[in-house]
Amino acid sequence: MVPDPGLQAERTELAWRRTQLSLLVIACLALRGQSPLLAVLALATAAVPWLGQRRRYQRSLAMLREERGHARPGMVLATGLASLALALVALADLASNGRSAHFDTATRRTTMIAQSSPCLTRQLREGLPWR
Fold it and tell me: Is residue 68 part of a domain?
């Protein structure tokens, strides 16, 4: 096996960036679904790892050079707890509305489009295929 000094830290950093990107996507979807609390929580969760990114990367490189180090599970635990909070907020929002806000928005758009187009209204009413 070929040693890869520095690449372990790089892979770890890329994993954290993927987590941040996923949280940003969740925030965008929450805003689109009109759930500002969920969006703010997702943005805050994405911001915490981003703020300590450079320091964490430098610390990982130093641990690899010295060939010793101690795991710091705090960030992993905090991100896991924040993800749990995101899920609970989303479930509470879903339970309070009876269905997702995004579904309501999509239904309103479909109704508006159908009302503005007689041909589309006929297709929807008669179950004709889309062209």
Answer: yes
HEC per residue, the chain: CCCCCCHHHHHHHHHHHHHHHHHHHHHHHHHHCCCHHHHHHHHHHHHHHHHCHHHHHHHHHHHHHHCCCCCCCHHHHHHHHHHHHHHHHHHHHHHHHCCCHHHHHHHHHHHHHHHHCHHHHHHHHHCCCCC
Task: Indicate if 51 and 113 belong to the same structural domain.
Answer: no
Among candidates 56, 55, 29, 27, which has minimal Cα distance to 42? 27
Q: Identify whether 15 is part of a domain.
A: yes
pTM score = 0.60
Q: Indicate if the pLDDT at residue 55 is higher than 70.
A: yes
First to last CA, the chain: 57
Same domain, 74 and 21: yes
pLDDT of residue 114: 52
Q: Report yes or no on 48 lying in a domain.
A: yes
